[in-house]
Amino acid sequence: MRGTVKVADLERLRDELFDSQGTVEFSLSGVVDADAKPNLLLELQGTVNLTCRRCLGVVPYALQVQKRFVLMRLDEDPGDVSDEAPDLEHVPGDVKLDVIALIEDELLLQLPMSAAHESGDCTPDAWNTGATGVHSPFLSLAGLKQTPGAEEN
Fold this sequence. Notes:
Oligomer: single chain
Low-confidence stretches: none
Order of helices and strands: EHEEEEHHH
């Protein structure tokens, strides 16, 4: 199965982003591994826009995901998975597998905890000068600040 998903259609992911622009291409295929267990191979790629933690501007973030899922019976125990590869996960096999939810889950797991521009690429001064057309709420508060010894009205 191959396709493209609009970021705007992924509600949980959209809530974590700067905007809902962009698409993610996906490929999902089924294989049987060396242990005769059914696997799903998921590949995702695209770019989403994150919010910079310093300047609150847009940070384009490229996503490239390759993940393998070992499908198990509902009553099956995966055993000790601590020594398995990080791109491998055991999931219960279900004929009603929601592919879009699986894609969205993997995209959410790939997002950084805190996005930021590279050093020197931010424009934090734009918030104070109004150069972007957006005024900082702190500028308004600065106008309320009184100098020591000034009389209250």
